[in-house]
Amino acid sequence: MGQFMLPNGNQPIFIMPDGTQQTKGKSAQSGNIRAAKAVAEAVKSTLGPKGMDKMLVNGLGDVLITNDGATILREINVEHPAAKMVIAVSETQEAECYDGTTSAVVLAGALLGESEDLIEKNVHPTVIAAGYRMASQHALSVLKGVCQISDEDLGAVFGGDEHGTEYSLAINCAKTSLTGKFTDSSVFVKDRIADIAGKAVAILREEDTGEVNLDDLNIICASGGSVEDSYLMDGIVLEKEKAHIGMPTSIDNPKIALVSSAIQVRTTEVDARINITSPDQMQKFLDQEEKALKDIVNSFKKAGATFVMCQKEIDDLALHYMAREGIMAIAQCRKSQFASVSKSTGATIVDSVDDLLKTDLGNAGLVRERKIGENIMVEIGGIEDLNKALTVVLRGSTSHIVEEVERAFDDAVGVVSLMGSNSGVVAGGGSTYVEIAASIREFASTVKGRRQLAVMAFADALEVLPTTIAENAGLDPVDVIMELRAAHSISDNESKYYGVNIDDEGTGVLASNMLEKGVVEPLKVVEQALLSATETAVMILRIDDVIQMKQNGPPQM
Ligand code: ADP
Ligand code: MG
After folding, report:
1. Among the atoms of ligand 1, which is closest to the Cα of residue 106?
2. Which DSSP string corresponds to 187-216?
3. Contact 462/139 with Cβ under 8 angstroms?
4. Rounded Cα distance, 308 and 354, in Å
């Protein structure tokens, strides 16, 4: 029953329909905060290089194994409105930055967790919200100022690479984004994926604008073999087999024809009935059909086509004649395959074979059929304009592995594409959060009133990131944060790069220089995480009234 009442003498007036639920004040706040924190808890254990994976099983029993925060939250069904707001944080993060989804959600959860304590102490949510806003502005300025790695420092670490600073930096950013993925496989796996991502983006980046259009990158997934067998290829890979066994398996300098309608004699649109009254007539009819098919093949010959792609089916007999002429063909191609072959080889799509002209044909260096993993595919290689025909073939022993490789590759290639000119890079491993937290604590002393408490709480929330990375790596979070704070308090250029050292478990060295280790990430990833986590935490904090309408059922007759 609608509980929202207006005073009217002693008689309450119900202004909302039956079934509307309302929660107000502290109980609304704590309900929302708990729901939001629960979302953060759900992904927390996956954060960082030693984070664990999750196995998600849907109603149909399909299994998905992943370490990716955004993927996990996308797959699970969440009803609570505040929880959905936190999930939106990971969606924005993924859309804008491809990476940092878990960090953003964990940070939002930490900010709300800290606010719970303040609300307990009777600090009003609007005061907390104001303090958080101040702190986050300060955080962004520290991030772009102190934390951004100077060109000099970047050169010192990455300049020695034979491929140049930029490439080496890109590879290392890609590797950081591959954090926590394929932890148990060899280091070569990550190197391979990072290398492919770095090279692909370098080719796709427009020289004048620095922009990268990732839509131009074709990605093919093939199970069978190992992840290390993944490769970048200058050309197009079609998940197709040649249409007839007698056709050649490879053609040098193919002349490519793209035909959109079916290659056959009878047009399916007209339903004609033919009355045959004598065996002669039958033979005549068959001869005619054969001639028509030969004509089709002759059209290809006349135009000079040696490799034919058709969007529909190709008549068996036509295939037979084409094979005899040494033409290679694939049938039932997808529209997207047509589009990319047309774009990269210069072939014009024709509606029917009769329309085919010499000028419609596309060019490439080689087309060949080849077994990739468990599948037979057709490669079109040797294409001149490389940035129009770049394909990544991702491999892995099973389909689950290839799927996770694809998600990892998407992140890596996306992160590298973010690194255009003057976009900034920071050190990872939680180092930025510790540096910002320290600066915020200093800044807090200048903030008057109770907002100071909120500013301090913001700093505490930031430190949840390094402590979570440490915890997931089996390190003691308290020891780690103490060592990190101590490292950052030293006033030299290097101290700000100190993050969680997850590699020397047992030696007691808990903090190390992340830049030197090559653990770097685009500034934008951290910036976006800070922005959306703060915005969402503030939005949730400001809600003190939750009104839930009853779901509309089917209209009553
Ligand atoms: P997200 O979804 O937020 O990207 P990840 O599980 O990918 O979550 O973890 C990212 C965090 O792990 C980042 O803060 C990154 O700096 C940190 N990280 C990556 N590599 C290392 C490393 N070798 N040592 C310490 N921290 C690392
Ligand atoms: Mg990541």
Report:
1. 3
2. HHHHHHHHHHHHHHHHHHS-TTT----GGG
3. yes
4. 14
What is the C-alpha to C-alpha distance for residues 483 and 456, in angstroms, rounded to an integer?
19
- 272: its two tokens: 């004609």
Whether the CB-CB separation of 297 and 325 falls below 8 Å is answered with yes
Q: What is the C-alpha to C-alpha distance for residues 345 and 385, in angstroms, rounded to an integer?
A: 8
Residue 62 CA, ligand 1 centroid: distance in Å: 28
Gap from CA of 48 to ligand 1 centroid (Å)? 4
What is the C-alpha to C-alpha distance for residues 194 and 178, in angstroms, rounded to an integer?
Answer: 8
DSSP class of residue 377 equals E
Ligand 1 probe mutation, 91, 171, 179, 472, most atoms within 8 A of CB: 179
Burial of 313 (0-12, 13-18, 19+ CB in 10 A): middle
CA distance 296 to 291: 9
Best mutation site among 147, 176, 468 for ligand 1 pocket (most ligand atoms within 8 Å of CB): 176
| Structure-block tokens of residue 539 | 């939005």
Interacting residues of 556 by C-beta distance below 8 A, sequence separation 6+: none
> What distance in angstroms lies between residue 177's CA and the mean position of ligand 2's atoms?
4
pLDDT 10s digits, 290-349 = 888 888 889 999 999 999 999 999 988 899 999 999 999 999 999 988 988 998 899 999
Residue 370's SS3 state is: strand
User: Contact, 459 vs 441, CB < 8 A?
Assistant: yes
In the numeric block, which tokens belong to residue 237? 């890979």
Is the pLDDT assigned to residue 268 strictly greater than 50? no
State mean pLDDT over 191-207.
Answer: 88
Nearest to 309 by CA among 252, 350, 274, 271: 350
Kindly state the tokens that stand for 50.
Answer: 């030693």
Exposed e or buried b per residue across 396-417, where buried means at least 16 C-beta atoms within 10 angstroms of its C-beta? beeebbbbbbbbbbbbbbbbbb
Q: Encoding tokens for residue 234?
A: 């200058």
Report pLDDT for 2.
46
d(CA 118, CA 105): 20
CB 465 within 8 A of CB 437: no
Residue closest to 105 by CA, chosen among 82, 133, 77, 123: 82
User: Quick one: which ligand is closest to 468's CA?
Assistant: 1
- CA dist 418 and 485 (Å) reads 30
Q: Residue 427 in 3-state DSSP?
A: strand
Task: Find all residues with CB under 8 Å of 321, minimum gap 6, and list them.
Answer: 293, 294, 296, 297
Spatial separation of the C-alpha atoms in residues 158 and 181, rounded to whole Å: 23
Cite the active site residues.
68, 101-102, 411
pTM: 0.82
Q: Say which residues have a Cβ less than 8 Å from residue 367's Cβ, sequence separation at least 6.
A: 250, 251, 254, 256, 307, 328, 378, 379, 380, 381
Are 236 and 363 a contacting pair, CB within 8 Å?
A: no
Contact 317, 264 (CB under 8 A): no
Instruction: Please list every protein residue whose CB sits less than 6 Å from any atom of ligand 1.
Output: 46-49, 51, 69, 99-103, 176, 179-180, 428-430, 469, 499-500, 502, 519, 521
